[in-house]
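Lecture notes, unit on protein representations.

Consider one protein chain, 536 amino acids long.
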Amino acid sequence: MPPTRGALLAGAAVTAVAAVTVAVVVWPDGSGGDRPGDAARSPSSSSSAAPSPTRSHPLSTAPRTIPAVRGHSPARGPGWRPERTSAVVVAGGSEELADEARLLATELKIRYRGVDVPAGAGDIELALSAADEGTPESYTLDTHDRRVTISGPDQAGVFYGTRTLKQSVLADGVMPEGVVSDRPDRPQRGFNLDIARKPYSAKWIEARLREMADLKLNQFGLHFSDDQAFRIQSDTHPEVVAPDHLSKAEVRRIVALAESLHIEVVPEIDSPGHLGAVLKAHPGLQLRNVRGVPSTGSLDISKPAAAKLVDELLGEYAELFGGAYWHLGADEYLALTVPNPSASYPQLLSAAHREYGRDASIKDLATGWLNDRAAVVRSHGKKPKAWNDGFFRGGTVKADQDIEVEYWTGKEYGARTPQEYLAEGRKVVNLNDEFLYYVLGEPNTFRYPTGKRIYEQWTPLVLRGTKPVPARYSGQILGGRFAVWGDLPKAQTAQQVADGIRMPLRAVAQKLWDPGRPALTWEQFKALADRTDRAG
């Protein structure tokens, strides 16, 4: 959580990929250590792929990509290179892949030939295949006889296969002979952006989405409301919107681009704290203590009008964003950070007693607020998320079990260890503020995270500090996101932010796709990133 804190396909085209002959470099493969409980990484059906009859070729090595592929069965042969006559085709019955095929053809500067057209020598075929008994987002990439076939159980998996092909050609001019069998380790892999404190243009955001897609990241968190500003056009409450904001038309283009790249946008309106921009237009809903002193950014949740206001905003934006998730925030409610909340905010205690009985506390009122907002977004077909410091120990009211915990800190009021949430059976997403928080200006104790440190020390099990939770909880950790927060917004330009997060994003992508020890050293990994970025 925050510290106290285009044209869709045309824009994704890359510069020409030269079909030049390069030596195949012997490079370590991308398999890392197994996640506890995982099956062996060696592909099953692909491992028996027959080598090319041409024995003069050396046995192939795995393609060089970020993230590294998790399984590669080598073979003898020249591999695949884009040729003058090369084209991308879509197998019959896989018409849904036409957009992926057109994008790949544009990027590789070859033709798109259409659906249900036989693949010839030099061609790439995309196919949805029930025979691919893979997990969601998995794929098989088979290269032989100067052809490539990319298949998978869903569109996302086939798309990720096209990213592997693109990166390999960019890195070395060739897709090595053999069969790649690949899949992600975690279902949620992403990037979080705070546009409330620091505005970013739609063009800048779209560039990050394209960058994410090539790294096989699939979730973009958009924090667009905070104490500093509310930055998306509103029809229900235009009075809360900052002058510098995204229009709904821009947001629709961002969401459409994200969907075309198999990225889900996860919007966030934080409440009942971090609402300063909204409260500036609604001062009557500002939380005040017994002496009348306002609590910065905090909503007085004892007032029915507070829920009405927030629910109207949630309903409006739930219709704008089409993904499965909604982030409710729930962190750093300042009423709970004072020495004696009940004495300071007696109106909140009275409301807790009215709603939940004489044994209830202000924590219970805050938990009830979270559950009520979760019910609102569920009614719009969304799955709720909230920051870990919105979940409290004990109490009369329990946070709904289906609200995913986004773990960022262990410094909160009534701090709880990550294991407490996991022991309750909760699903958790990793946003460890020591490794994954890029806080502009480095306030408090924050330091800009480095890709090297993430690459060498962090895994999804490292939820707090540097110590991993026990491996038995691995299945409850759904993934992670790298987050940019704009606490001191003028500390860096948008371009400096893009440059600063470049290698951390690549390291996070690697460790969420395969959390084991990478085969490449950091210097090798960085050199590979430099090569694909220059080529692209």
